[in-house]
Specification:
alpha/beta, six-stranded parallel beta sheet, 6 strands
Length: 312
């Protein structure tokens, strides 16, 4: 691939309007959207992920949506391989790739590369997961002892990342931090412009609360019931995400509907905070204040993308 092909990434916290902005940029500048939301990769998970319907995509091609079965393991490495192939296809047809989504780790893995860590050890992961369920918080305490630098970076409640850090430590006798320091190979042949959306926090949280309530009102519980009816287990990874977890608890009779909505709203706001924290550490990210559906912000972003394309 010739060096310097333009690539645009649109990121930000959930509910900030990334999809709307990506649609506008793609429509104006001959673009195609590449999903960078880990949950929107899964089939049947539509309402709770705020996935655009085919009609809402307004004819703009979207890639890496509905490509993974709910009970299928899908790693960042697999995402990088799939997204790299999609990017090559889009640019080969003379169109602009727009990577849009809120999974910051996937974007970083795609643009900057993954560290050369060990492969997953499912037996070890199962033991660590069981320990976490029996003794909540114990894995992060182990990580603080074995890899203090990683423990500072990883939130105690982010059990999958804690397990990965411990997996690296136990399999290699080295730390996750040392593995990262060993270097990684990033995406070649592209010039990435990374756009970050940062709407007012109070307005975003109000929008998220309303969106969560609307998801329950428009069929989230029924969506979860259908996924279970199709034979996928309650322990499937995407069913543990905010909104879906509470809908599943409601179906089991563990909590009432209002409590389910409340917990989903609270957990979604917390997730948005974690996304902000992650993206603030992202290199060369250009922030735009506001929501992605605001006309003035869209015009400002379009001007910036045009500058990026002109520099090619």
């Amino acid at each position: 691939m010739p060096a310097g092909r333009p690539l645009v990434a649109i990121v930000g916290p959930t509910g900030s309007g990334k999809s709307e902005l990506a649609l506008r940029v793609a429509s104006e500048l001959n673009g195609e959207v590449v999903n960078c939301d880990s949950l929107q990769l899964y089939r049947y998970f539509d309402i709770g992920t705020a996935k655009l319907t085919p009609a809402e995509r307004r004819g703009v091609p979207h890639h890496l949506l509905d490509t993974v079965e709910p009970d299928q393991h899908y790693s960042a490495g697999e995402y990088v391989r799939s997204a790299t192939a999609v990017l090559a296809d889009i640019t080969a047809r003379g169109r602009l790739p727009l990577v849009a989504g809120g999974t910051g780790f996937y974007l970083r893995a795609l643009v900057d590369g993954l560290f050369p860590g060990p492969h997953r050890d499912e037996a070890l992961r199962a033991r660590l997961s069981l320990r976490s369920k029996r003794r909540p918080g114990s894995l992060h305490r182990l990580l603080r002892r074995f890899d203090p630098a990683s423990a500072v970076r990883i939130h105690p409640n982010d059990v999958p990342k804690v397990i990965r850090a411990l997996e690296v430590r136990l399999l290699t006798r080295g730390s996750l931090s040392a593995a990262f320091a060993g270097g990684r190979e990033g995406l070649r042949g592209y010039r990435a412009l990374k756009i970050g959306l940062s709407p007012p926090r109070d307005l975003l949280f109000s929008r998220l609360d309303e969106r969560c309530r609307r998801m329950f009102e428009t069929g989230l519980v029924g969506e979860v019931r259908r996924i279970l009816w199709l034979g996928f287990p309650p322990a499937a990874r995407p069913l543990g995400s905010h909104g879906y977890r509470q809908a599943l608890q409601y179906l089991r009779g563990e909590i009432g509907l209002e409590e389910a909505v409340y917990q989903a709203q609270r957990n979604t706001r917390r997730y948005a905070k974690r996304q902000w924290t992650w993206f603030r550490q992202e290199k060369n990210l250009e922030w735009f204040s506001g929501f992605g559906y605001e006309p003035a912000l869209q015009e400002a972003v379009l001007d910036r993308v045009r500058e990026h394309l002109a520099a090619n």
